[in-house]
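Late entry, written up from scratch paper. The run itself happened at the end of the previous shift, but nothing got recorded in the book at the time, so transcribing now.
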Amino acid sequence: MITVHHLENSRSQRILWMLEELGLDYELQRYAREPSMQAPASLRAVHPLGKSPVITDGDTTLAESGAILEYLSAVYGGGRFTPAAGTPEWLHYTYFMHYAEGSLMPLLFMKLVFGKLPERVPFLMRPVARAISGGADKTLLAPQISNHFAFLEGELHKREWFAGASFSAADIQMSFPLEAAAARSPLFARLPKLKAFVDRIQARPAYKRAVEKGGHYEILK
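Output as recorded:
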């Protein structure tokens, strides 16, 4: 039996969604965030990094969203939600499976960190922190994020899903950074293809079942 070590409001929601898409039985081990919003230390008993998502499947312990999604597809899904190797769809799929966490999410996380910087420093240092935060956003983060959004909007003008005409695990992998962007960025509202993508994935029955089982799901701001 697969066990999902599920941290609230986290990337592990994607794993529940994949399991629901595949129609697999699984157990859910829930973990609440600490007041600091960090994962609890108890997750280190499952994986040394103490992060989520993590699954255990017999003697196998596996972390990292992309690795877990590909494992579930290969071992339990008969390749479902993975395009045939060597096809143009497979190339798109492979790219976006890595792009989500390798390129897009680090920028969004940096924007979140810099945005919270002024409230995390002593009161007298806040004007300096606001200047640093605003400068980093204006000169570094906002232009890059805008460029990434334009790129992704263009990709979804070419095809319905990120890999091609059919839904794939790459769409599940892309869901977390795009839901985060939709929750935080006013720019996102002016990107109709990306907005439609988020609306479309959230309307899928398997997505809704995953949210019901995983509990209240709110992108951290």
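The chain has a mean pLDDT of 89.
(Scratch paper discarded after transcription.)
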